[in-house]
Structures are given as structure tokens and as C-alpha cells.
Specification:
Layout lengths: L10 E5 L3 H10 L4 E6 L10 E4 L16 E6 L8 H19 L6 E7 L9 E3 L10 H14 L5 E6 L1 E3 L5 H7 L11 E2 L1 E3 H16 L7 E4 L5 E2 H11 L18 E3 L2 H5 L9 H10 L2
Parallel strand pairs: 1-2, 1-4, 2-3, 4-5, 5-7, 6-13, 7-11, 8-10
Antiparallel strand pairs: 9-12
Helix pairs in contact: 1-5, 2-3, 6-8
Length: about 290
Amino acid sequence: MAIADRNSMPGILVAGCGKLGGAIAVMLKESAQVYGLRRNPGKVPEGVEGIGADLTRPESLGGKLPDNLDTVIYCLTPSSYDEQGYREAYVNGLANLLEALGDQPLKRLFFISSTSVYAQDDDSLVDETSAASPARVTGQQILAGEQTALDSGHPATIIRFSGIYGPSRRRFLEEVIEGRMNPLKPASFSNRIHEEDAAAAVAWLNGLALSGKPLDTCYVASDCEPVRLDEVVEWVRQQVPCAEPVPDARKGGRAGSKRCNNKRLLQTGFTFRYPDFRAGYREMIEKG
């Protein structure tokens, strides 16, 4: 699209333009004027206008936000993985951004959240209507951030992602191959989404918002097959040579045992490129 047309394009701010935010920005930049906010604006993807600011330091925002925004995608990650780090990223940072936006009306505010807000540990199916009562303080801060978005005065949508994996997130696959992951049998249920589908889901919902389609206030974004962790590990071992498990191999995560239901997301018309773990990990294994 010609540069001359950019003034008529929708304005989108990706607040937290890191790994996931950057992938979202890349998907949107051909059809929108995309601004990527991060501490180091030189690291935003090519074709995205960088804004250098630290949302935990509101003074750094000073007059930097554009006034042509249609949607905001809030996608921060904590600088430390404790209660304070999560509160700064998910609650205070969003409050500072909303303050800086002032009375600029948005068509939609998207808040990138996590299925860690669900504490269920009984293999139950969870969806957007399920109780979200996180036991850990980090999950409690994410939930507080969700409420901040919903109370913002802007139409808001929460997107709760399960574990994101993919070519730039290879830790689990490498742990299995190197013998550092050896879950008990039967293991807890696990839920995941390929990083390409994660970015595409946000881009899809953003497109619906820009076209005036109604959106729910919350979507669970996870692939189509919750599966026990030991089944995933066993499948990987059948696809690629793996080392014997080491004595102190990890037994699994700390995310309880639940099965995330993505029906509401599918009902919007979104389709997964990687509908289950086999599709995603097979490609990663084949590409080395």
C-alpha cells in the first residue's frame, strides 16, 4: 500500500511490542498504521513506528502517543516474575497508558492475558464463563489487570492465552530432547497455542473490531486439543531421538490440570493453522 494512503488507515498501538507484540504488529502493518511501544523503540519490526517509553514510568510517555488510534493491544510482559513485577506490567502500566490516552475514544482495547487466571486442578473443561480465582499472586495481578481494562471506559476484550510455543519458544521441546522433562503418568492436562496462531488470533479479533463486528469481553485462546503432558512427551520421543531422562528431570508445570475450551474463539470464524500440538511440534522438529 502506498505511503500516501497511510493517513486513511486505522491507527493501532501495540503497547509492549516484544516477541508476541512484534509478531502481531507485523501481521497488522500492511493494513494499518501500527505503532509499537517498548523501552527500546529501535527493536520494533520494520514498517512499525516505534515509540520509546516505559509504561511503568508514566513521565516517559510525555506526549508520545499518537492521536489517531482506533485500537490498542496491551501486551506487556513483566520485568520480574514476582508480585511486584506482575502488578507493574499488568495493572500499573495499563493505568498509566489509559491516563496518557486521555479522552481519545477507542473502538477496542485488547488486553493480553493468560489462562493462569484459572486455578482449576481437576481436569475440568474451562471457558470464558468459568470461575477465575487464581491461587498464585502473579495470576491475581493478571486478573486485576483484566479488570482495569474492563473498567477503562473503552470497549475492552480480554484474550486469555494458554502456553505459547513455537520456533522462538523451544524450551519445552529442547527439554524433552535433552532428557530434562519426564512427567509422571498420567500427567496433568496441558494447553498450548502456537505463536503464529497466537498473533493471528489477536489480528483476527482486531479486524473484527475495526469492521464494527460485535465482540465478547473475553476469549480463551488455546489450540483445539488439551492433552496430558506425558502424552506430548511420549509423542516427541517417537518423532526424534531423545536422551534418557536425567535423575532431576522436570515433572511438569505448575498450571494445575484443566482443559481449555476455545469454542467461543472458533465461533468468530477464526481458524488455527496449528490446531494441535502435533502440527506445531512436527514442523519445529522437521525444521530442526
